[in-house]
Amino acid sequence: MDAPAVRWGILAPGFIANLFCTALRQGTRQEITAVGSRSAERAKAFADEFGAASAYGSYQELVNDPQVDIVYVASPHSEHLHQARLALEAGKAVLVEKAFTRNAAEARELVELARSKNLLLIEAMWARFLPHYDVIRQVVENGVIGDITTVYADHDQPLYPGGPDRLANPALAGGALLDLGVYPMSFAEFVLGPFTSITAVGALTDLGVDSQETVVVTNAAGAQGVLHASMLARSATSASVCGTAGRLDIDGTFYMPAGIKMYDRDDNLVDQYEKVADEGHAGLRHQAAEAARCFAAGKTESAVFPLDATVRVMEAMDNVRAQLGVRYPGE
């Protein structure tokens, strides 16, 4: 609530945009100013629901609105390059939903464009902005659990078959990795920093997108991450950070607002962090507040989740797809 109020334009008013705007209305002072959709009727209905003054039947009209400070790109990741580029070329700051793009080349293109225009660009990997992630950062940086040895994280949801068509479609950059695996991959990068090696095994659907994968990563210090994603079944969506002096277990779904339990090396509970008031997707407000602070301060990226880290995660996922044999049309 302390974050400065800036004016948001919502590009693609779908499921995640609804959750995002609900979080803004309930937990921030942000202004939902305009909505853009391929359907003028859909834009108008969304604008009416969230009190936006303007509704547009095209994305170009939205990004051209002089009353919009930041554009939130809420479409599927197969469209992010074109739509984020549209907003940047119109001179707008941009918050882009995860996965940032289809691949690292597209990510680098957007980063280079934003930097050339001195515009704010942030990936909306909302977990990176949640309070318990900052607690983990402090514990790791201060050596509270010793030298980090291992990170574990899983994200499995029963989304195939029978889920959204885009997840099965190579033309829409479908598969488990970019939709689900991006969370454990980003969590491991957050804790371990750049990966020096990546080893992946997985399975593909009959259309050639990944249905699940297990990935082992290492960093320069030799610490490892053991990560899993699947769209075939549901997992505990858990995460742990292990060190030579203790362990952190995220208490709940690791990428949503959660508490943390800290154990010593003998498995005794020695401390815990209680979850803040946010429940579920109400935590989306934290990424919006960070974007608003960055915009008001004239920054071009967030120190909480720098653009170089976004690119590194995309590069790692490119590496995993190459090992699994997953290619999207046009790559």
Give the structure's gist in a few sentences.
This protein is of the alpha/beta class and 331 residues long. Helix content is 34%, strand content 25%.
Can you describe this structure?
With 331 residues, the chain is an alpha/beta fold. It has two domains: 7-127 and 284-301, Rossmann fold (3-Layer(aba) Sandwich), CATH 3.40.50; 131-278 and 312-324, Dihydrodipicolinate Reductase, domain 2, CATH 3.30.360.10. The chain has nine helices and 14 strands. Strands 8-9-10-7-11-12-13-14 form an eight-stranded mixed beta sheet, covered by helices on one side. A six-stranded parallel beta sheet has the order 3-2-1-4-5-6, with helices on both faces. β13 and β14 (269-273) form a beta hairpin. It is globular.
Layout of secondary structure:
Elements: E1 7-11, H1 15-27, E2 31-36, H2 40-50, E3 54-56, H3 59-64, E4 70-73, H4 80-89, E5 93-97, H5 104-117, E6 121-124, H6 131-141, E7 148-156, H7 176-192, E8 197-204, E9 210-218, E10 224-230, E11 239-243, E12 246-251, E13 259-264, E14 269-273, H8 285-296, H9 307-324
Parallel strand pairs: 1-2, 1-4, 2-3, 4-5, 5-6, 7-10
Antiparallel strand pairs: 7-11, 8-9, 9-10, 11-12, 12-13, 13-14
Query: Span between N and C termini?
Result: 42 Å
Number of domains: 2
Question: How much of the residues is beta strand, in percent?
Answer: 15-25%
Architecture per CATH nomenclature, i.e. the level-2 architecture of the largest domain: 2-Layer Sandwich
| Global geometry | globular
Order of helices and strands: EHEHEHEHEHEHEHEEEEEEEHH
CATH class of the largest domain: Alpha Beta
Question: Low-confidence segments, ≥5 residues, pLDDT <50?
Answer: none
Radius of gyration in whole Å, from Cα?
19 Å
Structural class by secondary-structure content: alpha/beta
What summary fits the major beta sheet? 8 strands, mixed
* Count of alpha and pi helical runs: 9
CATH superfamily of the largest domain: Dihydrodipicolinate Reductase, domain 2
| Strands ordered across the widest β-sheet | 8-9-10-7-11-12-13-14
Helix content: 25-40%
What CATH calls the topology of the largest domain is: Dihydrodipicolinate Reductase, domain 2
The total count of strands amounts to: 14
What is the mean predicted local confidence, pLDDT? 98
